[in-house]
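Notes from the 1:1 (GR / supervisor)

We went over the backlog. Supervisor wanted to see one worked example end to end before approving the batch request, so GR pasted a single chain during the call. The sequence is below; no edits were made to it. Supervisor asked that the structure be written out right there so they could see what the output format looks like.
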Amino acid sequence: MTINQPDGQHLIISTLRVRNFRRLHSFDVELRPLTVMVGSNGVGKTTVLDALKITAASAAGALETTMKANGGIWACRTIGSMGDVMFEVLIPGDPGWSTNYSIRLAHMGYGGYLISGEVLQLNQDGQQRGALIQSTLGDVRYFDPDTQKSVLPTTVEALALTGVSGYAAPGESSLKYNPAETALSQAPMNIPLLGVMRGRIASLTHYSLLDLRLNAPIRMPQSLRPAHLPGPNGEDLLSCLYTMKEQMSDLFQAVEDAIRAGFPEFEKFEFPPLAQGIIGLGWKDRRYPAALFMNQLSDGMLRFLWLVTLLYSPGLGEVTLIDEPEVSLHPELLRILAELLREASLRTQLIVATHSDRLVGFLKPEELLVLDSGKDGNASARWGDSFDAEKWLDEYTLGDVWRMGQLGGRTE
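Structure output shown during the call:
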């Protein structure tokens, strides 16, 4: 069996299920190739992104550091809940096939956690067809679908904290096992399907507010090196653009065309060498005799350039999270951004959080996920195309309809 995304769209995660994680006490949501979340402050949009980031970190072997960065399990658990924190994703594959991956985290010690359960489950036509990974309190079992054999890691030392014994079956692989990280992140390399699944889940990347201070990396000359992404703070923006210009001229031309659509006086980019291995970026405007350098561009110009470069980057991961892309952007740039998001969702699954009713105004109902919180403070989600909004869209934009409260997710 192979794992492929459905034809004509880039969909890696079709469903996210979360339990006992902040506002996501019992949260199930369908995700689409382009998912733009909207809702009031504190309703759980960033929490959805964090749940996906933790799931990705678990596959990448960075669960422990990510949980520490989130304040430990006590800071993550839904207030008043004593249950395990659970993250689960459903990954579609060949027609009729899918894979569920889930992890459960229990409290252990002062702020610590124990991976109480982990499953990577193959499904066919809605029926379970076997677990590639089955782990309960550290008793870990891998299954190789090619050889039809189980591989058991050496867990005696690793499981001393849990009191659970483990063993390596005679003739099978023995693996050094870290109980603070998931079985998926430590899966044996000789089971190809596990490597594919680990790579898909771990490739998720997150982008948030761009550092635009006067001394920020994006405003400075940069060392020229191979780069296929602009970096979370634009630290590789110049290298990424230069790589695209020299090796992928069609992508570079698309970036320049998008900038020109937002800034009609823009002519071209220049890459003047400033020292050995150091380049700058010149923004050539038809109105001025000399190019503008990065430290002369406005916040909106820099952020739009970074977003355009990111969305055309050849290094986009399987899933891309973007938090509040609308910051500093003029409404006309938001129209272009909506088109770029839609186009990029053919190459990466895009999950975006926004507060901008103007950006929402350029979206389609099937691209908009509205988050609300109930009287108990817990989040729920509903897709824009599930509302009876057609009667409003003849006279109003989707952003207007949301702002008027017809789609829930009240604005503030």
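Supervisor's comment: Confidence is low (pLDDT under 50) at residues 1-8, 155-174.
Batch request approved.
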